[in-house]
Amino acid sequence: MDDPRPITVLIADDHPLIRAGLAALIGAEPALQLVGEAGDAVAAVEHYLRLRPDVMLVDLNMPGGGVEAIRKIRALVPDARMVILTTYDGDEDVHRGLLAGASAYLLKQSGLDEVVQCVRQVAANRRYLAPGLAEKLAGRVDANRLSRRELEILAHLSAGMSNKMIARTENIGVGTVKYHVNNILSKLNVSCRTEAACVAARRGLIHAY
Questions:
Q1: Are 47 and 98 in a shared domain?
Q2: CA distance readout (Å), 37 to 47, 86, 127, 197
Q3: pLDDT of 128-168, one tens digit each?
Q4: Residues 125, 35: one domain?
């Protein structure tokens, strides 16, 4: 009996070395076949529509935005199957990618076996989350307790702005800023602004609003 048709894969990543590494991994696996590469979101959309791969691996942070590429492709091809492959593992990053239409989320340090397993799952129209990322999504429930205003102030706080600077930027009173900052510290379970900024960076909260 002939072997089944290999799963066709398109890589979308702006780093040539990453693309080369992924291409080598895919080339070493008989069940997978690399059909193309793209270096930015525009090329990713164009290549996907032209090549129609079974699965696309897409970098979250490539020029033009991986999330935007996923949204555009899903708008044109509702059953498109895409895997976000990135160095980012903040819970908001995971959520934004999956909300845009990705079927899976892998970290770039994933090994060949995990990449193959993920691609097989997605090609079979199933979802896949790398170990530990499900916990990131669960942690997002707590992150969602921050209001939009608190997320905005958290972004300013993470940029090193003082309460007076935030107040001027947002056109609100310093007392109001202090109130929101205290709420942020409490909700993130941290004791100072520096810790809040670190948690915000780790969870991807700066891009959450």
A1: yes
A2: 8, 16, 23, 36
A3: 877 666 555 555 545 547 788 888 999 999 899 999 999 99
A4: yes
Task: For residues 104 and 188, state if they share a domain.
Answer: no
Torsion, Cα 84 88 93 97, to 10 degrees, reads -10
CATH of the domain at 171: 1.10.10.10
pLDDT digits (tens, 9 = 90+) for 87-132: 765 556 666 777 788 888 888 888 888 889 999 999 998 988 776 6
Domain around 73: 7-139
Mean pLDDT of 168-194: 88
| Structural domain ending residue among the three candidates 139, 159, 192 | 139
